[in-house]
Design goal:
The protein is globular and about 65 Å long. The two termini are 35 Å apart. Helices cover 26% and strands 16% of the residues. Helix 3 crosses helix 5. The chain is of the alpha/beta class. The longest helix has 14 residues. It folds into four domains: 76 residues; 124 residues, no CATH class; 68 residues, Ubiquitin-like (UB roll) (Roll); 76 residues, no CATH class. It is built from twelve helices and 16 strands. The strands form four sheets. The chain has a six-stranded mixed beta sheet with strand order 1-13-12-16-14-15, with helices on both faces. A hairpin with a 3-residue loop joins strand 6 and strand 7.
């Protein structure tokens, strides 16, 4: 049997500039032209439940927007370096507050009486850094697991392992299918506990463990994160512009190409190449136009879309609709298909390449008129739908 080579999380080279989005205006200490240090507080996150935003590298501020900061990277610039924070003795809510102050976006706690589930599975194609972490960052994952036990001290833990992962010693082991879409957190939780929870509360992914373990080991704010960029995995600072990341990989988008933030199925196309990669950006892919589905045929009535749905939803109702009735069809079945995960299994199974993932996304937008729905149907196209 051919041995699979060990994967390593590569260090991303220092970028020229960083662009970071905030939840509100930057903290008062930041002024244009002033230096900042790596780990220095910049401001609140866009999602109030997430961790605070800190400067990923040394540099100086070149622009401050209503909800953004632009930093020119300069290793010689020194602002207000953070002091290490000791979190060893903290538990529960005190530990949660400390982790958020260090920039960690914490997973949602499990409901009372339910165990937490740590999944070693790659949740979606194109998110390969999930298993690279197990091969190259095991010590950091174990540090994160130890903190997680103190964060949720009264709960039990289940570890969903794969052939490439090592047990963390948190709790009993379990196995699930490694075939997409059954690797998605809500479906993993349903398989293990037999309960349906679209929010996948209590599900912990490798990137969550890595972030917790990283700040636990250093005591310093989180300034970088694992990310898959065009099938290779890197440890990159937050705020690297999409355009610079593509350039660093010698990739240049051509007319008809699609830049995708996230996985290759559920990721979302973006035209904002000057935006910065955020903590929640787990992958960046450039898909050439030659790989895209540029046409689709009529519904054959084969039922493969419905048969492939992990929730057994009647996705054939969308597949059968004519193009000129897509907005109305999406409105008609929005409640019936409200549980849709937008996993794209139906689109992948369709022999006529019907854009079922885009149609499924349209059913979730019931607050707009027909003209807006037609725009949504174009803007929300998945690269594989």
């Amino acid at each position: 049997m051919k041995e699979i080579p060990r994967q390593v999380l590569k260090a991303w080279p220092p970028p020229d500039e960083l662009f970071l989005e905030l939840g509100s205006r930057a903290v008062g200490a930041l002024k244009i032209g002033r230096p900042v240090s790596r780990g220095q507080l910049l401001g609140p996150p866009r999602n109030p439940q997430d961790g605070l935003v800190h400067s990923p590298l040394n540099g100086y501020v070149t622009a401050i927007g209503q909800r953004s900061v632009t930093i020119k990277v300069d290793s010689s610039s020194i602002g207000l370096p953070p002091r290490p924070m000791a979190i060893e003795g903290l538990v529960g809510s005190d530990l949660e507050e400390a982790l958020r102050s260090l920039g960690v976006d914490l997973p949602i706690a499990p409901p009372p009486g339910e165990p937490a589930i740590i999944s070693a599975l790659v949740p979606e194609p194109g998110l390969d850094c999930a298993w690279v972490l197990w091969e190259d960052q095991l010590a950091t994952l174990k540090a994160g697991a130890a903190v997680l036990r103190r964060l949720w001290p009264d709960g039990e833990f289940i570890e969903v392992v794969s052939p490439r992962s090592a047990p963390l010693g948190l709790g009993r082991l379990a196995r699930c299918s490694e075939r997409y879409p059954y690797t998605l957190p809500p479906l993993v939780k349903r398989k293990i506990l037999g309960t349906w929870d679209p929010l996948a509360r209590g599900m912990v992914e490798p990137s969550d463990l890595w972030a917790i373990g990283s700040v636990a080991r250093s005591g310093l704010p989180l300034t970088s994160a694992p990310i898959t960029i065009q099938y290779s995995s890197y440890l990159a600072p937050f705020g690297v512009r999409v355009s610079e990341a593509l350039s660093q990989m010698n990739l240049s988008p051509l007319p008809g190409d699609v830049v995708v933030l996230g996985g290759l199925v559920r990721g979302r196309p973006t035209a904002r190449l000057e935006m910065g990669l955020s903590k929640s950006t787990k992958a960046l892919h450039l898909i050439r136009s030659s790989s895209l589905i540029d046409s689709y045929g009529l519904c054959l009535g084969c039922g493969r879309c419905a048969a492939s749905c992990p929730l057994e939803l009647p996705m054939d109702l969308l597949a059968q609709a004519p193009v000129n009735q897509w907005p109305e069809t999406a409105s008609r079945y929005s409640e019936l298909l409200s549980g849709c995960l937008a996993c794209g299994a139906c689109a992948l199974a369709c022999p006529s390449s019907r854009p079922l993932l885009s149609l499924a996304l349209m059913t979730k937008r019931t607050d707009c008129d027909d003209a807006a729905r037609r725009q949504i149907g174009t803007a929300c196209e998945s690269p594989l739908s």
